[in-house]
Amino acid sequence: MRVVVSALAAALSLALSGAPAGAVERQLQLSLRPGFSWSSGAFGGPGAAVDLGASYGLNDALSVYANAAWSIALPEAARNSPRHGAALSAGVFYAFDYLRVVPYGGLGLRGDLFVAPDDGWITVSPEARFGATWLVRRSFAIDLQGAYAFPLFARDRAGDLFTVTAGAMLLFDL
């Protein structure tokens, strides 16, 4: 058993400790990530989400990002179901660009448009966005991302907004 654990640890070390990633500075990153969403308000519930994202590396650590998303929630109250949502967000994140797996986290501002049967509303939220990008090649990566938004308006309808998505990312040197 110790041999298996040692072999797994060695394989993980090799996978994560390659040459520095160098994949943030002056790179445009475009991503498509399907995933899961959940919100806690009266019109909230579990559902599906799809994100389209773009980011640009300002230097070796800081990047700006923009994200467009669509989600559907299936609230327990049948009269509120389904609830569709569209969101736009932008912000800045810090990337730990040292390994082939690049963890990152950041803060931004998000606007949501929600439509449910017989209702619709807009809300603005500060958001926290975090994730990790596995750099498969200099021009291709796999990205796992999570986001939390705290709506400033219509909290009774929207509630807290959570999203977890995973997908492919194309990287372009500029």
Description of the molecule:
By secondary structure, this protein is mostly beta strands. It has one domain (21-173): Porin (Beta Barrel). It is 11% helix and 62% strand. The chain is built from 2 helices and 8 strands. It has helices at 2-16, 155-158, and strands spanning 27-39, 46-57, 62-73, 83-95, 101-116, 119-137, 140-149, 161-173. An 8-stranded antiparallel barrel has the order 1-2-3-4-5-6-7-8. A hairpin with a 5-residue loop joins β4 and β5 (101-116). The relative contact order is 0.22.
Looking across the biggest beta sheet, what order are the strands in? 1-2-3-4-5-6-7-8
Helix share, percent: 10-25%
Alpha carbon gap, first and last residue: 48 Å
Q: What fraction of residues sit in β-strands? A: over 45%
Q: How many strands, which pairing sense, and closed or not: the largest β-sheet?
A: 8 strands, antiparallel, barrel
| Element order: H for helix, E for strand | HEEEEEEEHE
CATH topology label? Porin
Number of domains: 1
Low-confidence parts, pLDDT < 50 over ≥5 residues?
3-21
**Overall residue-averaged pLDDT value:** 84
Radius of gyration: 18 Å
CATH class: Mainly Beta
Number of helices: 2
* Backbone structural class: mainly beta
> What is the strand tally?
8
Q: How would you sum up the global shape?
A: elongated
CATH architecture label name? Beta Barrel
